[in-house]
Write a structure and sequence with these properties.
mainly alpha, 61 residues, elongated
Length: 61
């Protein structure tokens, strides 16, 4: 059991050393990209909702 845990920890450390962590600039750039895309999608859905509710109100009322 102890050997299994030791092997697991050794393998985990070896895999973690292969990970390339993003720089601050890359994280900031990804954050801005996500912010722009989410804002665009939210505005688009709000516009679609407005159009559909207006057209439904015109049909029903």
């Amino acid at each position: 059991m102890k050997d299994t845990i030791t092997t697991y920890l050794r393998n985990s450390k070896a895999e973690l050393s292969k990970v390339i962590f993003p720089t601050k600039a890359q994280v900031r750039q990804a954050f801005y990209a996500v912010l722009v895309v989410v804002t665009f999608i939210a505005l688009f859905l709000a516009l679609v909702d407005l159009i559909m509710s207006s057209s439904l109100s015109a049909i029903l009322g």
